Amino acid sequence: MSNMPLPTLPSLPALHLRARLNASLRSWFAERGVLEVETPILSAAGNTEPNIEGFSTRFRGHVDAGARERWLRTSPEYALKRLLAAGVGDCYELGRVFRNGEAGQRHNPEFTMLEWYRVGWDHHRLIEETVEVVQLALSLVGRHAAVDVRSYGDWFRDELGLDPFLATLEQLAAPLADVRIDAEGLTRDDWLDLLITHRLQAKFPADRISVIFDFPASQAALARIRPGEVPLAERFELYLGRNELANGYHELGDAVEQRERFERDNARRRARGQDELPIDERLLAALPNLPACAGVALGVERLLMSLLRTEDIREVLAFGFAQA
Questions:
Q1: What is residue 115's three-state secondary structure?
Q2: Does the first or last residue of the chain, that is N or C, have fewer Cβ atoms within 10 Å of its Cβ?
Q3: Contact 240, 143 (CB under 8 A)
Q4: What is the pLDDT of residue 262?
Q5: Which of 192, 184, 303, 201 is nearest to 246 (CA)?
Q6: Residues 297 and 80 sit within 8 Å (Cβ to Cβ)
């Protein structure tokens, strides 16, 4: 007889709500002519972002099949962009993604991501649609949220009296004087992120959708940078209450610049003692054919947590990581 403890019964209301949400999302996108696609979960390339760790595995078949080391996707982004470059048009994927390193109340190493792309759109137009998607989800539990859309710069100036683009590191650190922080090696972006997590995010009202757009150029990732006196990354983040749900970009189509960003990521990984990761050469080859577009990724579990007003991700999963 097994000595394994009996599993905790999954939350049936959460399972039913997830099913209703999935069906509603698929119907919503179908009505708008956005094609549902499925892309590979295993890839020969990894995600070079230093703050994201992936899972890897090894293929034991014939060597002609390609690289033996494969990475579980942290997002379907690269493959979806390859489809866009091939002419698929507006598309989305609703599927599992994997991130290593954290499991518990707020994180599960495997989770569901909704990611979609709109051809010919910029990030401002996609903000409006992302808000619609979140309002659709809220309607499933009889709720509706007020909406506040602000630029990154206005957010810091309004709430902290700081210009995030021009303030010195000492000025950025001042509002965090009462927080125990090891400041050694912290970059400007680190201080900005600490201000968000410790001072700004906590001020969001519980039942409001908050959207922040036009980030520092150093935080562009895969977004376009708009030149100017202060260059800005054309991306946005959407929060429901204090929960960050979505991250969207006016997508970069410059393969040379994107390669430089991937290489800078790997340089930061080396400096931190992390493994370098293989760059997605297929994505880079496709980028010159990427149509002008905007895309966004939304965490489904985070959305379900907000709908059910829970702070524990395990309450919206059939089985959490410890029971998987």
A1: strand
A2: N
A3: no
A4: 97
A5: 303
A6: no
The average confidence (pLDDT) of the chain is 94
In a domain, 164, yes or no: no
Sign of CA dihedral 184, 185, 188, 194: negative
**pTM > 0.85: yes or no:** yes
Four-residue CA torsion sign, 117, 194, 53, 101: negative
CATH at 126: 3.30.930.10
Q: pLDDT tens, 138-172?
A: 999 999 999 999 999 999 999 999 999 999 999 99
Looking at residue 199, its amino acid is: R
Radius of gyration of the chain (CA): 20
Please give the tally of structural domains in the chain: 1
* 176 in any annotated domain: no
The per-residue pLDDT for 61 is: 82
Mean pLDDT of 299-313: 96
H and E: helices and strands count for the chain: 9, 12
- Assigned domain for 184 exists: no
Cα 89 from chain centroid (whole Å): 21
Domain enclosing residue 300, as ranges = 12-145+207-323
- Containing 117, the helix (H) or strand (E) segment is strand 110-119
pLDDT value at position 93?
98
- Is residue 135 in a domain? yes
Q: Pairing relation of β-strands 208-216 and 232-240? A: antiparallel
> DSSP assignment, residue 203?
G
d(CA 253, CA 293): 9
**Dist. CA 106–CA 111, nearest whole Å:** 11
Instruction: Specify which residues 145 forms β-bridges with.
Output: none
